Queue: 4 jobs
Job 1
Amino acid sequence: MSTGRTGGPAFGGDALVLRELWISFVSVVRSYVAAHDMARPTGRTLVDEDALKDGAGRLTLRNGQKILVLEFSTENGAGTWTLYEDDPGPERVLERGEYRIGADSLVALSDRRGTLELEVAAEAFTARIFDEE
């Protein structure tokens, strides 16, 4: 798995670095959502972020009948994502997976091979809520 950088992917790392990467990731997701919303005549995507508490972050995107929930740990850079239909709940799960943000800002997604740059991973998550792959 080549990263295009010397030394390969570096997962885990300093909690402060991972915290800053999560904040950056959330900002990029918000930017992609805003750009998408500006391009459509009706409807808006709701974005809700729970502040990082005890090393954990949560980001929720709601667009129409879909809800995407991303959870993240600054302790190890690991996260989970779940796509729900209409309401969060086990019977409403459409898809789910895991991801990991490395200290080098590369992201590994459980449903893809290799790693992605942070902004490309943010775009991939945003596409899930808008039905674009």
Job 2
Amino acid sequence: MATEKEMNQASFIKIAKEINAYSEIIKSRQNQKQVILNDFDKERGRYRAGKISKASLASSVPRVRKELQRLNDEIRRNIRNLNKTADRAKRFATHQIPKNFKVSLTGISLAGGKKKKRTVHRTRHRTRTRSRAKKKR
């Protein structure tokens, strides 16, 4: 009896959930980064208004830079993980290529795929006399 491939949906759902989780983490880190940028912009506005000193603004700059760099690194790491998981999903999907069945009066059998046409590559060797003759012209 002929049987067609069946996709393991539980495994594919697991991969899809991982992709979703990584994308949510990336989005939340991007939101955190935006909050930090907005806070620093407000702090700079307070400095312009004269409510805080230049020294207090300058002291927050290294802290903000360090936090932004940490978030950038985390976003990049999660993007790499997301790409790896997406590649795994692609490989999983390519394993689902359907089988070719041949149906006849005698029954059902697996049909072979199309055979590739073989080509023979021949190289042409030019003689030295031919190239010398061209140079003399």
Job 3
Amino acid sequence: MLAAGSNLAAWAEKTSDTLLISQAQVASNDPEFEEALVKHVLKRFFNRIDANDSQKKEISELVNNKRVANQAKRAALKAGMKDFLSSASSLDNSASSDATLRAKAKELRAMHEELMDDRLESFLKVRALLSSEQKEKLHNTCQLFGAHKGFIRKFSSSLGETL
């Protein structure tokens, strides 16, 4: 019975990773799904911190403006990753191929860092809109998710692999 339970746990872990990857891929190809996903995440966030109407409006505008502004950057990063993986899996082991891969990796790292810096700035703007009580609620939520680092790490790495 233990073996069956272990197999079930392994299957559930693999299935959840696959589901997260497929949701990320669908969201990038389906604007309506992406919009619904963003609304869902914002609604949960607003409920979690008990946001007022003014905060909901400002945060929603910020998120939607950033999402639209960074859409081209995310698409370029995704295309660059596909190109990099295609080049990396080639049979060419020459020094020029290695140099090309290093250059592409450096370029992709810079693109990723730019997006991460923008995410940080957005987070800081959102945090500035929150009251002390809301910041405490956010802190408690982060502590809760921090206790499940394995899930977050798997989610992040799985999502990163789809880009």
Job 4
Amino acid sequence: MTFFELLWQGEGFSDAGDLAEALAGFQEVKPKELSWQEVCADPSYTPTIRRYRSFEAFLDNEDELETILPTAEMLEQACPAGTGAEAEEPSP
């Protein structure tokens, strides 16, 4: 089964079992005051997904099958406005 490792600012912070879950996982770390366009334009954030053959391959330090650099559009579709962490905060 394919395994996805999520990286933010060059550091692994989560994992996922499929691409949709991986894209949605970035909602956890996205600064609330920034749009996905702003995040993707800033090279210090660089949301990155590494796809591995399996979890075992990841643990065995095998090379990833591919590295995915999500676009703002991909992230917006996976994390539409009003969902995720930002939806949990009450309005003032």
